[in-house]
Amino acid sequence: MKINVGLLGMGNIGTGSYQTLEMNRKTIFERTGLDIEITRILERDVDRDRGFFVPKEKFTQNPDDIFSDENIDIVIELIGGIEPATTFMMEALKNGKHVVTANKAAVAANYDMLLETAYENKVMFRYEASVGGGIPVINALTKALSANEFEEIHGIVNGTTNYILSQMTDFGLDYADVLKVAQEKGFAEADPTADVEGIDVANKLAILMAICFGIRLAPMDIPRAGITAISKEDIDIAASMGYKIKLLCSAKKTGNDVECHVKPTFVPFGHPIAAVNNEFNAIFAKGNAVDDLMLYGKGAGPLPTGSAVMGDVIEIATAISKEVAFDLPPVKENKELKYIGEGADERYIKLSVNEDVTLGDVAACLANNGLDIKSCRQLCASDDKKGRAGYVFIINAVSGKALETALEKICKDIDSVKVSSVINIL
Amino acid sequence: MKINVGLLGMGNIGTGSYQTLEMNRKTIFERTGLDIEITRILERDVDRDRGFFVPKEKFTQNPDDIFSDENIDIVIELIGGIEPATTFMMEALKNGKHVVTANKAAVAANYDMLLETAYENKVMFRYEASVGGGIPVINALTKALSANEFEEIHGIVNGTTNYILSQMTDFGLDYADVLKVAQEKGFAEADPTADVEGIDVANKLAILMAICFGIRLAPMDIPRAGITAISKEDIDIAASMGYKIKLLCSAKKTGNDVECHVKPTFVPFGHPIAAVNNEFNAIFAKGNAVDDLMLYGKGAGPLPTGSAVMGDVIEIATAISKEVAFDLPPVKENKELKYIGEGADERYIKLSVNEDVTLGDVAACLANNGLDIKSCRQLCASDDKKGRAGYVFIINAVSGKALETALEKICKDIDSVKVSSVINIL
User: Fold this and answer.
1) Chain B contact for A8, CB < 8 A?
2) pTM metric for this prediction
3) pLDDT tens digit string along A238-257?
4) Cβ separation of B139 and A135 shorter than 8 Å?
5) In A136-174, which positions are buried (b, 16+ CB within 10 angstroms) versus exposed (e)?
6) N or C: which end of chain B has fewer CB within 10 A?
7) What is the pLDDT of residue A389?
8) What is the C-alpha separation between A271 and A277, in angstroms, rounded?
9) What number is the ipTM of this complex?
10) How far is A347 from chain B (nearest CA, A)?
């Protein structure tokens, strides 16, 4: 059976998706009996060297050439960004095209609208590549694990920040130096804000929250910290206590309360997430039947992302061949569960102080402000072992808000105290 | 929509599957609109305390009560073993029932027959739980990753042996001592043969070979070694060289040649599989688009396995509700690829020798017999640092057959040489 596909955007991911299909078209045909072809491509840059031949007549600069083409069954959206991508996807769905996207920002921003429009128009909408690149996490969570209630999700879902933290950890480098090298190597954007400030991760967490807990969140409302404030010293202290620092998206259900956040986090060496380094991504989930589960792989890159995109295309094409290419009614928002913002976690706190403030002074002040100290130690100034450079505290589980209030008061109570780091502990 | 399910066998896994469904029935209904119920159970042991209430009238001792029950749509087979499980599954399929199983032995032995019978009878056959317990590996490989050609698969797919090797590694214990404790704790069977000799793993590898490469193998024909010969000393030597010893199933495609084997294997510390410990399982795959991917989770246990079983049931029930509960023609055997038995791998070899045989003597003999030494070192007798207890060699990639022939000749060439260990290196 012949299935024609329209492609919106042929940058890196579009090129990788096209290449994945061309490379494995014969195998896909043998496995499924489906002859899938990308027949039209919306892209201005026709002449770019993509490393393989793409017939020029496939290219168009008019999206309507794709939406109104009756021979096209499936539209792949790989433009990125919320607009015009969302408008294009809506247009495609309303024209009876199935839609596949890798666009986390658009999916996070318009989750219900996209799923409902697909349902209303009796077509399918798939977005596997929007979280974790090539890792089949959306498929696993929505299908194979659908007999579970989820209790926890923790993910490393941004390769740029994981690369930076891994390099800082492995080679004792500073954030700024690693970022520079990452930019030179093309692992980080010229403007790295969306990655290093955790915005990209928040988009992905919003999608995971919808899938796992039926909770809808605007990504910008998710409690979030990036990695720009993580110092070499934090990483060394973490290591000395048996932790790696990772930028995690985390969500946890306790009773009917669900908390979530995007934060740099101390991950114990023994936890499988601690072994996920450099450009790799991983999603760790705990289900009430399956227990601990982790999916690990390449979270970005043209071919890994192409693998996820074309996996979705094959699913839809198979459904077309069975004459059931429509989605069931989307799962509604879960009104029983309550989103509570950032929940209580153990925290690592590093405070700088004047020479004359003792650990006892500070510990007493923390206790007076409701912080329950699990362990603490003095940090020595590097050149003078007697100099008190500061103190490190591990605080038993405390909510983000309570901690913030306490730290403000502590800074008022002891004049010279300055908060140099606050990091969650998994 | 109401979907009735018949259950064959309510031992541990059957109980876990029933419990998974009961525990999450409301959630499953909210997600899918499906009201799934296990209405009949083939099981003699009606009175066993399963920790929750099961109405006695659900039990029967006559399988025909399930096969001929027109209200039953799906049959779950959890009896285990090749027979009578295969006969029961065939009977169910021929009676127009969809079948879900966790039975690796029956699936490995009768893969084509079961898939073809399902196809001919226009029903679905699913076996997610047969490899990796709760880990959705079959779903990932057959669906989400279907745009890939697979290049390599390496799996830890037996929790008992991974537990034993992990405990030997972490606590410096001997095989026999750990096995005894594992048996007492219920982590190993009274007769552990199928686990420790790699037979269980070979069944699972036969299924993975069919899925990933379209190659059909009888599990007993797969080159295989168990873990009974692994010594504490091997584990220590491995650690000193930066490796953990894991019982792996491995398959690799080179051109059109595909090799596979089940063998204890040195896994480099940095490889994600090295961090998979105790009862956990993991399947590592390399696809030509997705690149490296690993799925990690609980490979056994009533609830994790129940998660996979009920995931399959929900998939089928969803298809029933869409009126497309039939399988596409099964993927045929791949005649282009050639199975070549065990391929070439780096190897670790430990030889014991008489006091007067030098490393130079043995190294020369290995070289004369075609073995390409990558590194070697002397092992000291524990009480006498001058005593030559033996030698350890790392040999560059060599096939299993070539190695065996060479080692036989070496033992003839140097009288006192005895082979104490041969272990693959990943």
Assistant:
1) no
2) 0.95
3) 999 999 999 999 999 999 99
4) no
5) bbbbbbebbbbbbbbbbbbbbbbbbbbbbbbbbbeeebe
6) N
7) 77
8) 13
9) 0.94
10) 26
